[in-house]
Amino acid sequence: MDFTLSPQIENYRTRVRTFVDHHVLPLESDPASFDPHENIREGLLAEIRTQARAQGLWAFQMPRSRGGQEISVVGMAALYEEMNRSIFGPACFNSAAPDDGNMILLNKVATEEQKDRWLQPIIDGKVRSAFVMTEPHPGSGSDPSGMMMTKATRKGDKWIIRGRKWFITGAEGAKHFILIARTSDDPRKGLSAFLYHADQPGWRIERRIPIMGPEEHGGHCEIEYDGLEIDDSNRLMEIGDGLKATQIRLGTARLTHCMRWLGLSKRSMEIAREYIRTREAFGSLLGERESIQHAMGKIAMDIQVGRLLVMNAAWKLDQGDFARKEVSMAKIAVADTLHNAVDTAIQLNGARGYSKDTVLEWIYRYARQARLVDGASEVHKMVLSGFYDREGSDFWSWGP
Questions:
Q1: Which helix (H) or strand (E) holds 179?
Q2: Which of these CATH numbers, 2.40.110.20, 3.40.50.300, 2.40.50.140, 2.40.110.10, describes 129-240?
Q3: What pLDDT, in 10s, does the model give residues 253-267?
Q4: Could you tell me which CATH number the domain at 243-396 has?
Q5: Which CATH superfamily does the domain covering 7-123 fall into?
Q6: What's the pLDDT at 143?
């Protein structure tokens, strides 16, 4: 693949970078910018979103016919990286999880009527959404097809949902939900996907689960379903296609996480670089010391390795490939890189890095989830082992 960005994408990239520098980064130093859960407060976010949309920097992943910019996955990789140089960035451009992955899924598989009702309001920024799959033990986690316990029972033209879910990102503030539930015991076709609105009866949020934080808007919630009724017209895809819908969503969503994490990695190193170029100790600048240069050079290289893995996976997704192997490699590598980048930056900044005088401690706490969300690193290593077992030396083939 050619790593040169097209003139269109490069134009978007420089505009996103300028917008983040001028309108988003300055907000991080003002405590009044934060909500109680350490994200950008809602009123301020609405103001910044209005400005971004007015500049044509909105919903890059969506079709132009629905108000987006219709950018390829390769283009998204470059733009999402720029956005997340700020801890607030992705939400300002309507490119944050979980809405990002939900929009991409609905745009790919929903009917036109479903898109009008369930997708368009998310694109327009009028509602937020959540993807409801993970369950508490002994229910589904990384093995939804074999362990999911939430059931959807058909009754005429309706489905009755009973069960429990947890760690559902964004649920407290969401209006539109994509729910995965069991509809049969078939090992491959036993799950189905459904759409429902927050105002429907038969479900409730039991609690917003406290986490290390910081949190996405709407937190991570535990949900109880005790008779939620969903019309069959609000079933997404065919009966038994729930696992397929999940795989379609997570393929791109895992990679867009990596794109954003690379932005946070670069931001961490920007803060470190600025400090070591001005901080003197024992008669010299920190940045002049060989040990410091080794640390900075290693992280710079790791970020570039992560970018190449992400771009390779993005290119394959654009070719219509599921890119499961490539996405898993990127997910493992970039999650580690984010943690190592911010950890190194904190170490080089000393007590300043550990304080709240910079956003490094925010990024550090956020980074710990990277090795868990959308499949733990160990699960992705199992996926790669399976590919190698089947492919042997062809694991590293150059062709499609």
A1: strand 176-182
A2: 2.40.110.10
A3: 999 999 999 999 999
A4: 1.20.140.10
A5: Acyl-CoA dehydrogenase/oxidase, N-terminal domain (1.10.540.10)
A6: 85
pLDDT band at 115, cuts 50/70/90? very high
Cα Rg for the chain, rounded, in angstroms? 21
The domains of the chain are located at: 7-123, 129-240, 243-396
For residue 284, give every residue at least 6 positions away whose Cβ sits within 8 Å of its Cβ, in sequence order, or none.
Answer: none
The alpha carbon dihedral of 340, 307, 313, 98 has a sign of positive
Angle at 345 between CA 359 and CA 74, to 5 degrees: 80
At residue 120, the pLDDT reads: 98
Neighbour-count burial for 96-128, b at 16+ CB within 10 Å, e otherwise: bbbbbbbbbbbbebbeeebbebbbbebbebebb
* Positive/negative CA dihedral, 267, 271, 273, 274: positive
Look up residue 231 and give its two tokens: 């019309």
Q: How many other CB atoms sit within 10 Å of the CB of residue 5?
A: 16
